Amino acid sequence: MANVTISGQELHDMICVAAAFLEKNKKAIDALNVFPVPDGDTGINMSLTLQTAAKEVREGKKDSVEAVGAALSLGSLKGARGNSGVILSQIFRGFGKALQGKQTMDAALLSSCMEMGVESAYKAVMKPKEGTILTVARMMSEAAKEAVKQNKDVIQTIDAMIEQGEKTLAQTPEMLPVLKEAGVVDSGGMGLLVIFKGFKMCLNGEKVPEAEITNLGGFVAPTAEEDNSDIEFGYCTEFFIKDANGALTEENAEQLRKVLGKIGDCVLVVGGGPLLKVHVHTNAPGQALQYGLRYGSLSSIKIDNMREMHRELENGADAEVNGLNKVVAKENDAPEPPKEQKELGVVAVVAGQGLCEVFSELGADQIIEGGQSMNPSIDDIAQAVKHSNAKHVFVLPNNKNIILAADQAAELLKGEVDVRVMPTKSIPQGMSALIALNPDNNVQDNAMDMLEAMEATNSCSITYAVRDTQLNGKEIKKGDILGMVNGDLQTSGQDVAQVCKDTIAKTLELGGESITMFYGEDVSQEEADALAEELEAQYPDFDVQMYPGGQQLYYYIVGIE
What we know:
The chain has 19 helices and 19 strands. It is of the alpha+beta class. The protein has four domains: 8-212, Alpha Horseshoe (Serine Threonine Protein Phosphatase 5, Tetratricopeptide repeat); 235-305, Alpha-Beta Plaits (2-Layer Sandwich); 323-442, Phosphotransferase system, mannose-type IIA component (Rossmann fold); 458-560, Hypothetical Protein Tm841, Chain: A,domain 3 (2-Layer Sandwich). A six-stranded mixed beta sheet has the order 16-15-12-19-17-18, sandwiched between helices. The chain is globular. The N and C termini lie far apart (67 Å). Mean pLDDT is 80; it is low at 215-230 and 307-338.
C-alpha cells in the first residue's frame, strides 16, 4: 500500500470531516480551561478557524491537492481566532506551500507538508512555550518522517502521527506545571489531534460520532490552552504594518522578529507585500509600535493584558456560526444611512441591555449585541461599520476574543472605510475610550486619546467557577465566586458582595479615583444598591456609581479610573 495517495477531492473531504469532528468536540476542549470561568473558548477558536477554512475549501476547486491546500491556507488565515487559531492557521499555511504544484499527496508529501507547517508556525511565533499546540505538531511531524523512512503509506503515516500526538499530549502536564496542577492536558494540542483524527476518520469512511472524545492520553479531554500562571511579559501587542507600495519583504519581517525578540517573546510577524501582521508579548508595547513604524504605517493596534482570560460561551460561537448576532442601531432597526457621510463613527460590541443603553447614550452609532454570550461575526462588524456611515469608524470590541474579528472586518473594508480597531478588552475600557472621543478633533488625535483613556482604566469582574481546579496553589471548587482583575484571578469566596469588595480592593492597589459598576441579570437592584452604599462608606473619597448592566455570567463588571 506504499503507493496510496490522496486526491484533491479526498483532501477536501478530509478537511470537511475534520471541521465537523472538531466542532463536535469544541465543548470538551473548552470545558476544562485552566481558569475555570464560564466562558473558556480554545475549542471554539480552533473550530471557527477550521470552519472558515472548510468553507473556503468547499467553495474552491478540488481537482488537485494544490488547489485545496491554497484554499485551506487562505481560509484558516481569514478565520484565525485566538492564539491557538493563529498557530493553526500558520501550520496550514505551511501545508499550502508544500502542496504547490502537486496533484496528489503521498506519505512523503504529507511529511513535507507537516514539516513545512511546523516550520511556518515556529518561525512566526518566536520563543514559543513548550507544551502548546506547537510541541504536539512538532512531534507529529517527526513521527511522519520516521513513517516515511519505514516506507509506510499515507494512511499508515497518519496513524503514526496520531499515535505520537497522543503520547506527546499526555506529556504536556510535565512541560507546564499549571497543566499538571489542574490535572489536564494542553487544549491546543488536543485540538490539533482531533483534526488529524478527523482526517483518518474520513479516509476510513467513518461518520463523525455522536459522542464527544472523553479521554486522550490518559487525561480528561477538556484542557487548557497555555500557561498563564507566571507571565514574564505582561502585554500582548498586535498591529498591522501597511506599505502602500507593497514593498514589505520577508527580510523586513525577519528583521522585525529579531528586534521584537529582544523586548519580549511569542513574536509573530507574518505577511508581506502591502501588509505585515505583528504580534508580540512584551512589557514595552510602545517600543514595539515604534519598531513597527520603521517599516510603514500602523493600523488595528491592539494591546491586551496577558492575564486576560475571559472567554466566550459555546452557544455564543454557535450564534456566530449561524449568523445570529444582532446589529442594533440606536433606534432599534438600522435605518437607511444618509447620503452624506459624517467624519467619525463608533461601533461597539456590548452584552446586556443596560450596557447597550449606556453605550448608545455615550454616542456609539451602532451597537452589536454580543461579547460574553455570543461572538459577532466578521460580517456583523462590517455591516455595523457600513451602517455608521462615517469616513472614519472606531470599533470597540470590549473583549479580547473579538478583536481579531474586528481586525479582519477592518481588512475587509480597507479602501472603502477607514476602520480603527481600538484594543478595548472590557466594557469599562470601551466606555473610557468612548468618553475620550472628541468629534471636534481629528481621527489620529482621537485614536491616541482613546488609547490613553483605555490604558488608564483597570477592570475587574465577578463571576463563578464552572469546575473544581487548582490555581496558583489555591483550591477552587465548582460554584465558587471568582474575582478577576484585568483578567487575572485575584480573589475567591462564597459571597458575591464580599468577593466583589475584596476584588475592588485589589484593583485599587493599581490606583484610581472613581469606581463605576454594572450589575448583571442575576443581581437585584436592592443587592446592588446595598453594595454601593457599603463601598461609598468604605471609600468616602471615591466617586462610586452603580448602574444596571443586564449582562450574563458576570455578577458585576467594574471599571476603576
